[in-house]
Amino acid sequence: MSIQTIGLVELSSIARGMETADAMLKASQIELLEARPICPGKYMVLVCGDVSSVQNSVDVGKAVGGHTVVDEFLLPSVHPSVIAAISGVSPVSVVGALGIIECFSVASLIVAADTAAKAAGVELIEVRTAMGIGGKSFVTMTGDVSSVKAAVEAGVATLSEKGMLVEMAIIPSPHPQLKSSLL
């Protein structure tokens, strides 16, 4: 299946998160990609489908989630490498320059990863979504130095608009042991 539109609702309550996931699935013909607790005691619901169905589902999720909604998004025409990087099945086999973007929310980070992937010729290595890292999220990417720099700058710009950026780094020539730890 070719995923073209994804939407996510991130909530501060696990109980309300499960209720929200159920309502989102009942609201539209969508596919659930992920629904699970994330650190620190939050819950995320990630869905895909056609644009109008995902939009309706996210709108319902925001309404049901109410005051527990931390962040959300709708990404039509999502870059294909984003889903692979979230799933941990990125096809990257060689690491060149390394770019890292770290942020405070899963939703904002996925949007930043999509923006970065579309901005320059980089390969996303991983999108880590708030597990075991205190609720923060990060994306790692590789390519030539100028592409990684352009991609990181584009992703950081989207996070800065919402005040979600924690930190970013560009490593032009990562140590071989660091490279092997990424793959």
Would you summarize the structure shown here?
The chain is of the alpha+beta class. It has helices spanning 14-27, 51-65, 80-87, 106-119, 145-162, 176-182, and strands at 5-11, 31-38, 42-49, 69-76, 97-103, 123-129, 137-143, 165-171.
Description:
By secondary structure, the protein is an alpha+beta fold. It folds into two domains: 5-76, Alpha-Beta Plaits (2-Layer Sandwich), CATH 3.30.70; 80-182, Alpha-Beta Plaits (2-Layer Sandwich), CATH 3.30.70. It is 42% helix and 32% strand. It has six helices and eight strands; from the N terminus they run E-H-E-E-H-E-H-E-H-E-E-H-E-H. The chain has helices at residues 14-27, 51-65, 80-87, 106-119, 145-162, 176-182; strands at 5-11, 31-38, 42-49, 69-76, 97-103, 123-129, 137-143, 165-171. The strands form two sheets. Strands 2-3-1-4 form a four-stranded antiparallel β-sheet, with helices on both faces. The radius of gyration is 16 Å and the shape is globular.
Largest sheet features: 4 strands, antiparallel
Average pLDDT level: 92
Tell me the series of helices and strands, N- to C-terminal. EHEEHEHEHEEHEH
Structural class: alpha+beta
Number of domains: 2
